[in-house]
Amino acid sequence: MSTNAFANSGIRPATPGDIAALVAIENASFPGDRLDRRRFRYLLREANSVTFVDVDGEAVRGYILLLLRTDWRGARVYSIATHPAHLGCGVAARLLTAAERWATAHGCVQVRLEVRADNAASLALFRKRGYVAFGSHRAYYHDGMDALRLRRTLAL
Q1: Angle made by CA atoms 55, 78, 19, in degrees to the nearest 5
Q2: Which of 26, 64, 123, 147 suits a disulfide with 114, CB 3.0-4.6 Å?
Q3: Half-sphere exposure (CA, 13 Å, Cβ side) for 128?
Q4: Contacts of range 115-122, beta carbons closer than 8 Å, 24 or more positions apart
Q5: Which domains can be identified in the chain, with CATH numbers?
């Protein structure tokens, strides 16, 4: 599946020109543990990763960032965020769908992620999409909150 498969969906691959919008989403969405401009630049240009953005015209409403490894046929959702002005509009669900489709098309058999144990909205989205818990990390986040580890097997 090429990235052209997302044409007309409002989803497209992120570019370095999106970095300011990505940082703004981070700052508006997370009180700590934020990705900064330098980290986004590295992830977009050099890392074994792919980032998709949900756009409406020129406005970036949210993003999802997948990390990939050459020794594992899976993808890790490193970060997913929706700008607070667009919460509840299906942005995260569209981004997750795009990322899963991309991962499947590129031979991934599983998607994994960590999510705050107290993030009810994200947990509901992931569980609705078939993600199941397989572990946790104690005191994973800057404020000491635990993370639940979730995974979903992809249909090839």
Answers
A1: 45
A2: 147
A3: 10
A4: 115/147, 115/148, 115/150, 116/141, 116/145, 116/146, 116/147, 116/148, 117/145, 117/146, 117/147, 117/148, 118/145, 121/87, 122/80, 122/92
A5: 3-111 (3.40.630.30)
- Lookup: tokens for 57: 């015209």
pLDDT in tens, 104-134: 999 999 999 999 999 999 999 999 999 999 9
Q: What is the pLDDT of residues 23-57, one digit of tens each?
A: 999 999 887 778 899 999 999 999 899 999 999 98
Specify the pTM.
0.90
CA 111 to chain centre: 11
pLDDT given at position 32: 73
Q: Which residue has the tokens 């989803």?
A: 11
Cβ atoms within 10 Å of 115's Cβ, excluding its own: 20
What does R_g of the chain's alpha carbons equal in angstroms? Answer: 15
